[in-house]
Amino acid sequence: MERLEAKREIVRPILANEIYDRQELEAQAVRLIENRQQIEHDQWEREPEVNARSGLFEELTAKGHLSVIESEESVDETNQRTLRRLVNGWVNSLPDWEKERRLSEIVEELINHKVSADIQAGLLPTDAMVLTISNFPSEVPERAASGLGYGVLNAKGMVRSTSFENGVRRLEQVSRSNSNDGSAEQFYMSNGFMIGGGATRVLSSQIIATKRQFPNGVIDVQRALDALAGPGIIYGESRQQPGLNVPEYGDLREVSANREAQAEVQIKKLADYERQINIKYQVGQISYEDKLSAINRRRKELVNEICVLNPSYAHDARGQAAVIHFENAAMAMASGNDEAGYQHLQKALDASDPRAGAVCGGNGLTTESQNNVSAATRRQYLEAKEDRKNWKWKEGLCVVQRCPSRPQKTQVGPCSVCRNCQKIFDKGDNPKTVYGVVGFIDLITESFRQTKRETEFEQRQKRARQAAANQNINKAA
Ligand SMILES: [Zn+2]
User: Fold this and answer.
1) Which of 41, 383, 425, 438 has a 20 to 30 Å separation from 341 between CA atoms?
2) Which domain holds residue 428?
3) 271 pLDDT more than 70
4) Average pLDDT over the chain, rounded to whole?
5) Gap from CA of 418 to ligand 1 centroid (Å)
6) pLDDT reported for residue 464
């Protein structure tokens, strides 16, 4: 193996291709592909959970999500296993452009191994990390890209870092929009690298850096890309647009972890499903492609379910046209009106944009008929209804338009309904009429109780109580 010869200080980011022989690495990748053996009987114990978590959130969020994969075994074991997964995942029937990307990803993994070996040998600093910018392949026809799972609607891309500190291999990946906006090419230029343009060049130009350059790791790289894209850009999106639902950089790790914790039940379901399918695959009942497409179908159902339980995901996961129908399905479910719920979910699935993430249950055609609810839709709705019970409350926007908590965020439960609106639904009332009539002060104070601005809330509560007391005095008099 090629190695650095002397300890290398990383005073500025360097291109991996400057210190490792890329041609040799590509040749090695090709040899690995030629000698691959697809069937794998070994698995990390928690690998299906890792796959489920990253698969679900890749589809649920188009930008501004950070996913983390940390090794459970030694760095060397994790390196070997990851490489084997990538190599065995090779499919000969893929189009050439996708094969080229996958080859680059195998080379990226080989670079990870080199960096990790050089850290262990004391030739690179312990906080050295490998950075990869994976942009949307804009040179490819839209259909082909969306068919292979690329986020066409927002030209979704990824920035990732792989680090090896304290004996733990850690991958962090941030999703971003408009990844083909030239910010990646500018990022290379601003670091003094001439790599040429285009997603393929970018993908095959790993950077090695340390915390000295990027103290907050991949988040700092994303921040730098946004700054290069122009003023007021975050995760590749304009901050000005209404309804932009992304965390600030400083909150990204925490918000992403909380999102994933909320979908714990769905992650477990998908992981269990993968385990069942793996058994069928390992005994030769189904092919590798069958296995992947079965898991994909199940994942799409669970994404639909999560969009009913939290419609704020619907925009990214299913496209703008589907949002209103997911919100209506959520409200129907919260109010216990399942017949209406089926209809709304069916409309949501029919209106889903395959470019946001392919549709399941619907067929992409709009159904005019009011009663054309498929069995699959009914099943997904009922599954979501069952999982409502385990859905954790989290800060968010109440889905009820007339809710007095809006436009502030408040604690919302399943179907993104706040406690007050849920109480109204539970009584069989409609918040639309209720909010016009009674309990306004209670509702307002309740909604402010949920905000972080405690002192302002307390002042308002005091004023509200005062006003209510005055009213009572007036009534009594
Ligand atoms: Zn509400």
Assistant:
1) 438
2) 394-476
3) yes
4) 87
5) 4
6) 66
